[in-house]
Amino acid sequence: MSILFTGATGFLGSRLLYALLVEEGREVTALGRGTPAALRARIVTSLAGLAGGPLPQAALDRLHCLVGDVSRPRLALPPAHYSRLAGRTTAVWHSAADISLSAPLESLRGTNVDGTAHVLEFAEYAGQGCRVTHVSTAFVAGRRRRGCVAETGLDDSAGFETPYEQTKFEAERLVRAWAERGHRPVTVLRPSVLVTGSRPDPGEPQHPLGELGLGAASLGGGVLEEVTGHVRLPLPPGGTLNVVQVEYAVQAMLRLAARAPVRPGVHTYHVVHPVDTPVRLLLEAIEDRYPGLRLEEVERVPDPSTAETLIAAQLPDFLWKYCTHRRGYERSGLLSLVPDLADPPPLDASYVRAALGYGPAPHDVTRTRVTV
User: Fold this and answer.
1) Burial 316-326 (b: 16+ CB within 10 A, else e)
2) Which residue range or ranges hold the Thioester reductase (TE) domain (predicted)?
3) How far, in Å, are 40, 67, 239, 251 from residue 63 at the CA level?
4) Whole-number mean pLDDT of the chain?
5) CA distance 155 to 165
6) Closest CA relative to residue 111, chosen from 65, 153, 68, 157
7) Neighbours of 339 (CB within 10 A)
8) CA distance 140 to 260
9) Distances (CA, A) of 117 to 25, 88, 109, 293, 331
10) Is 268 helix (H, G, I), strand (E, B) or coil?
11) Residue 148, SS3?
12) Helix (H, G, I), strand (E, B), or coil: what is residue 241?
């Protein structure tokens, strides 16, 4: 029997797929776009990059790649293929999502909302014994600035920072209604900003801090090397981000999915860092990379210089949107189910430099084999 996995080519999805195949020895059918040969080549290349070499043949034998599309009814599969897949599927991991923070709402809904609806329809067709794990985001909390977001919370009263958040909220609402209607258990996982200290191979999905480092590098060879003195950035002084190592997140997600209650209903877990990362730490890493540059966080930048305009334009959307949040996230459900998984260490200067692409990756103690 097999797991149906969506989102296998994403930054998080590829790592979850690797762990399911190699560390847990599971049989997985990865659904994705393209031709069958191209899809399998892309996935195998990505997994080999994570492994640092060829995958074991046994893991390759357990990997099945199926061309389909979550945004289309019946996953864009012919009826006979759909039925055969449902007949051998005992679990679904739904990780596919359009994670753009700037795409239009209707464009995002096609993948994030309609795609979730189609995956749930498949799980219903596969039968009552098919368990669903839905990868959401901690940012379904939207514009809420303060307080502690409950794991059971799903509230849109504060509005949303981005259309992406709204579509993930709408997808979670679909999941809840489906679980209640069918008396089915669903595990919902809500990660925050995911990063790694290991640089992805060229062509592989990048993570947000890597994008920030690449954005700064795109100004290298010119602007950043020549700028000296203070450069003002329109960021709130003392801002923080909830950033969590993807290696920790993967281990937590695997254990949560394996140990989540089987009683009907939605069981939601925040996969976040217990300690927020100061934005100042990111800016200091960029300053170290470009001596003479001093980045200053200010509420407003009246009459910006050319350098200030260029540098501000390279700041990724997540930095603008999320560093004003002062909220926390409940983790009691996660801690009760995975007490054997140590909290991730706070991101320090060495890790941040590596995540930005400015230095070697530090040793990561969370990269261990999972026993569930």
Assistant:
1) eebbebbbebe
2) 6-253
3) 9, 13, 43, 20
4) 91
5) 12
6) 68
7) 9
8) 21
9) 28, 20, 11, 49, 27
10) strand
11) strand
12) strand
Q: In whole angstroms, how far apart are CA 155 and each of 34, 47, 146, 185?
A: 37, 37, 14, 21
pLDDT category of residue 370 using cuts at 50, 70 and 90: very low
Q: In what order do the strands lie in the sheet with 2-6?
A: 63-67, 28-32, 2-6, 89-94, 131-135, 185-191, 265-271
Q: Does the pLDDT at position 221 exceed 60?
A: no
**pLDDT digit string (tens) for 242-263?**
999 999 999 999 999 999 999 9
Instruction: Residue 199: count other Cβ atoms within 10 Å of its Cβ.
Output: 18
Report the sign of the C-alpha dihedral through residues 121, 126, 132, 136, in that order.
negative
Please state, in angstroms and rounded to a whole number, the distance separating the CA atoms of residues 79 and 119. 15
Beta bridge partners of 193: 243
CB 122 within 8 A of CB 184: no
The structural domains of the chain, ordered by start, are 2-194+242-274+326-344 (3.40.50.720)
Q: Measure the CA–CA gap between 290 and 282, rounded to whole angstroms.
A: 13
Partners of residue 64 on adjacent β-strands: 29
Token readout for 15 is 């790592």
Q: Is the dihedral of CA 53, 54, 58, 60 positive or negative?
A: positive
Percentage of the residues of the chain whose pLDDT score is greater than 90: 76
